[in-house]
Structure formats: C-alpha cells, structure tokens
Specification:
Blueprint lengths: L22 E4 L9 E5 L5 E3 L10 E3 L2 E2 L23 H5 E5 L2 H9 L9 E3 L9 H5 L2 H10 L4 E5 L8 H8 L4 E6 L5 H7 L6 H13 L4 E8 L7 H13 L5 E5 L6 H12 L4 H7 L8 H17 L34
Parallel strand pairs: 2-6, 4-7, 7-8, 8-9, 9-10, 10-11
Antiparallel strand pairs: 1-2, 3-4, 5-6
Helix pairs in contact: 2-4, 4-5, 8-11
Amino acid sequence: MRWENLTEGSAGPAALFGADAVVTRTIDTPEFRGITFHEVRARSIVNRVPGASRMPFEWTVNPYRGCSHACVYCFARKTHSYLDLDTGVGFDSQIVVKTNAPDLLRRELGSPRWTGAHIAMGTNVDCYQRAEGRYRLMPGIIEALRDRANPFSILTKGTLILRDLPLLQEAAEVTEVGISVSVGFTDTGLWRTVEPGTPSPAARLGAVRALTDAGIECGVLMAPVIPFLGDSPEQLRATVRAVAGAGATSVTPLVLHLRPGAREWFTAWLGTHHPHLVPRYERMYAGGSYAPTWYQRRITRQVHELAAEFGIGPARRGEARKIVTPGRPDGSAPAGATQLSLL
C-alpha cells in the first residue's frame, strides 16, 4: 500500500497524515469479520469541493475512506486506488478511519479563517457505515458543529444516525441541519445484491419516520435509480409511495452514474447477475459516466409527478443560524484535501 501518497514526504499535495500515524487493526467479531481498519491521524478534515463540481455546497467532512456498505455502484471506489488499495473488495473491506476527526474539526472551526460555511457529510462515503458503531466519531463531529452553530447536512444509508438523534435536535435549535436518507428503490431482491452491507430500504425509511417524528425534517435522495433493474413505472411508484408513507419532506431522484473505478466493478457484477443487460448498458453509457439526458429527465419527471400524487412537498428552508460567532474576518477557509463531488 502506498501510504506515502498521502503522508509526509510525498511529492504531491500537502500530506493528509504523518507517515508514523497509521495503525492497522483487524477485528475478529461477526460484525467486522473480514474488515481491516487503518487508523490514521489526519492533518486536515474540512475539504473543499472542486470548483467544477455540480454540488450546492463547497465544504465537506469525511471521517472515513472506503465503505463496508459495499454498494456495487459506489462512485467513490476510485479514491481507494490513490492508496494502492483495490477499488473492488478492497474498497468494501479496507476502511481508513480518521480517529482525530472530532478534535481536528473543532480546531478548524475555531480558526479565524473559517467563516461558518455549510459543511456536508456523507457525500463521499457513508459517515454512518458499520465502522461508526465502533469508532463513534460522529457525536464529536456534531457537537463541534453545534457548539459553533455551523450549518451542516448529512446524507446516509445508515440507521445508526438515530443514535445521535438528541445531538441533532440540539444542533437544529441553533443552526440549519439538513438530513437526507438514500433510498433508491424498495425491491428487496435488488437491495440484497447491489447494497449488501446496508440496512434494508424498509429500515432506512423507518429511520426517516423516526427523524421526522422527532422534529428533524428529513428528505430522501432516491439514488440510484438503476436502469432496467429499478426504473419500471411500478417500481418507481412503489418507492415514492413508501417514501411518502415514511413522512419524508422531499424526494429527489438521481440516476445511476458510473465513474471509472465504479464502472468496472459494476460491469463485472452486471455480467455475473444480469449478463443480458451488458450490451444495453454499453449503449446507454457509451457517452461517458452518465445516462443520456433524455433518460435522466424522464425519470425526474416521473418521480416528481408521483411525489405530487402522494403529497410530498419541497423541503422548507431551515432557520438562519441563531448563534453568531463574533470577530470572524472574511478570509480563506482552512486548507484541505480536494474532495470528489457526489455527482
């Protein structure tokens, strides 16, 4: 593994952690069997999203790299190649844990250079994947954001977010808190093969209901909509109906995209489980990582029409920050590693 790509002494950008700061652990328990954790002490935690990104936010925090959710389509797989780790099984089982993330975030938020911009989490890999049950990084991260009244959002497939519900309620009293749960479909057969390490779609929708019942508005990112496997009118209707029944404030469809790294892994999976679809995918994604615009628009229109039918309205804007940290001059935010965008 080329840890030197991200450690002091590398020829590339500023190191993300020191060369002597890596501890590798294999935990032999049923929950973590087959997973190796690489514990690191990060040098920065607030990451700037590239300027060309389509994302509506500029800053992210990602306490983990790699993800045991093992979603075959995950666009973040390519990032594991930067460590000379496999983008297939290695991405699913070799998890980098930034053990000092909460303390580092608190320090960076307290810098005079930080101006209180929105911070998005879960945009690269899931911050509530199974590793979070062991390392418990998110409570300290939320506390740091709460104490600075810094607006933030979380996107997750993990029901473990309910553990931190009291902290989310406290944060929502002083700043904007946006929560979205990813549920691309409700087909359990499809779920078991493409998202084998995640809670079931029903469990995720149960988390949506628990969050909304607790006063935390929660939207659903209907992602990914998988062509020819999860995009029939009946499947879309069933998913939007279930999302509405869970009390989601909004539903936003996102069609499967296949970046390098994810594309190869997904294509191999497709060839094993649905070989008859391989030619159709080759044609649909011949132009690059994204499905054709006409197809994306069709899915978006169908989902929006179903959302209107089932009474799902747009999410309301949260209140402005109620605590203002004085004495913050304008200036650049902390230097950080460039982060891939969700799209």
